[in-house]
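Chapter summary example.
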Amino acid sequence: MNFTWSDVDELEKPAFAFVFDPRFGKNFTLKKDMNIAVWTGAFRLKLNSGTTGSLNLNELFTFEDAQSKIDNGMAKVDESQMSIDSWWNGLTELEQKNPVNVAKYETANSALEKAGNLLVAADQAVNTINESTVQYSLDKKQKQMWNFLIGSQFQINQHFMVRGEVGFLGSRTQVLAGLQYRFGF
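The structure predicted for these 185 residues follows.
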């Protein structure tokens, strides 16, 4: 039998799993320290079915680079607006009435206003994401709690053993393989 308990910060409650795998078999001695064991049995897995939790979006996605780009973009929009205003204010009254200059000034202001609005919206989106969480819940269940298993272990000598086991005949297949070394204490 085996019982596991995992407490993860992002989960509201710990996750539990209980494994019960009874076996019966026979050990055959081949030489003094060499033997082979074979067994059959069953494997039962029980999980707690509900998992709920929340994750901060700023832990999933980093927007530090985006925020600096937005800040740089806003600074460039402000710079450009000052440059356009300086150009416009440097014109004489007659030059300000010229339709070509009026069109340039209005087009530049319109483009800068749209860029500013886009950057403000992006800034708000990044701030919203940084303050948002994703709530989740999972209902996890295995199709069948039980499956059949067979296995064998070959003891080469007093120190080394090789082991293999496979579980099947259900909704799940599992494989266990191992090499074991015993220290001669």
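To summarize the output: Helices lie at 57-60, 64-90, 93-96, 99-131.
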